[in-house]
Design goal:
The chain is an alpha+beta fold. The protein is built from three helices and seven strands; from the N terminus they run βααββββββα. The longest helix has 33 residues.
C-alpha cells in the first residue's frame, strides 16, 4: 500500500529585491516569526559547525489556516552562500527541504522544495481523504511567507 502521508511541494516566489537581502532573511530563521505569519517559534538547539551554518539544528513550531500546529526539528545539511540552503527534518514532519535563490532583471527567484512525510497519527489516518486540504493549507502558509517577506523587504508595497 502506498504511503498517503508523503508530500512533495514546490513553492516559487518572485521578490523584487536584491538576492542578498532575500538570502539574509531566509538564512535567519530565528527571525521568521517577526514577518512570517504561521511561524510561531524557531529555537536554535545547536550551532552550526562552520560560519555558513552547516550542522545547525533548530526546532520549528508552525500554525496553519487549519486548526493544528506542527513541530519538527531541522538540521542544516548544506549551504551555498546566497543561493542554497538544505536541511533534514525530523519529528511531526520528516523529510528534506531546499531553498534555492537566483536573480535576474531585478527579481530574486526563490524556489522551495519540501519532500516530507507527516508523522502525526491523525494526519496519517486522514491523509487518504484530506490530502487536498493539507496541500491547500501548505500553500496558504507559504503564501503568508511570501507576503511577509515582501512587507519586510519592500515596506512601501505592503
Amino acid at each position: 500500500m502506498a504511503n498517503n502521508s508523503r508530500y512533495e511541494f514546490t513553492t516559487q516566489w518572485e521578490i523584487s529585491a536584491p538576492q542578498i537581502s532575500v538570502w539574509l532573511e531566509l538564512n535567519s530563521p530565528e527571525n521568521w516569526p517577526l514577518w512570517w505569519r504561521g511561524v510561531e517559534r524557531v529555537q536554535l538547539l545547536q550551532l552550526g559547525i562552520d560560519d555558513l551554518g552547516n550542522g545547525a539544528v533548530r526546532r520549528y513550531t508552525w500554525r496553519s489556516r487549519l486548526p493544528y500546529r506542527l513541530t519538527f526539528t531541522m538540521k542544516t545539511t548544506h549551504v551555498e552562500p546566497y543561493s542554497c540552503i538544505e536541511g533534514h527534518a525530523t519529528g511531526e514532519l520528516e523529510g528534506f527541504g531546499r531553498w534555492q535563490l537566483s536573480h535576474s532583471a531585478g527579481v530574486t527567484h526563490v524556489r522551495y522544495d519540501w519532500l516530507v512525510e507527516a508523522n502525526k497519527r491523525w494526519m496519517r489516518w486522514l491523509a487518504p481523504i484530506a490530502r487536498p486540504l493539507f496541500e491547500w493549507n501548505h500553500d496558504v502558509v507559504m503564501e503568508w511567507g511570501r507576503q511577509g517577506l515582501l512587507r519586510r523587504l519592500l515596506p512601501e508595497t505592503g
